[in-house]
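Example (one chain per record):
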Amino acid sequence: MKRLAMILVIVGAINWGLIGAFGVDLLGNVFGGTYEVVSRILYFIVGLSAIYLIMTGVFENKNI
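Predicted structure:
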C-alpha cells in the first residue's frame, strides 16, 4: 500500500513540476482535460496518497 501511495505522489509531483515549469498538465492531457471526471478522480487519489504517507510517517515515527 505504501509503495503504491509513494508512486502516486511521485507522479503527482512530477505533473505539478511540469505545470509549473512548462504549463503542461500531463495527466490532464492524457485523461481528457484538467476538469474531466477521470482527471479529477486521479488528482483526488494522488491527494489521498499524500495524506496517507504523511499520516503513516507521523504515527510510525514516535519521536515527532
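Caption: The chain has one domain: 2-60.
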